[in-house]
Amino acid sequence: MSVPCSPTTGIAIYDRKGTPISLARYVELHSDEEYRTVASDAVGDRRVITAWLGIDHGPLGESDRPLIFGTVALEPNGQLWQGRELLAATEPEALEHHQTVRQGLVHQKHQADRRPRAEP
């Protein structure tokens, strides 16, 4: 399968619907925070963010679908929670990842809240 690439950059770039777009259109869309942000939630002091990336982040030749969305959970210090990003090809799939990560954080917070506190 031939992947459409930007003649300027040589990389494949897509809008949120998965339609190939030009570099100029990517720059325009990427500058719009509302367009980039698919979902964002705070869970305690952590944050779950799902965003449109636009550029295919999939391993070259390993997927017939461009992975153009990413979901991360961030620690208060900005580090990735569990050290990973979940990639998705479609917005509905990305939202599923978002809910899964959010539920994981909620569960972890609930477990931590149930632990007895050490007395000073």
TrEMBL record:
Region (Disordered): 91-120
Biased composition (Basic and acidic residues): 110-120
Descriptive protein name: Uncharacterized protein
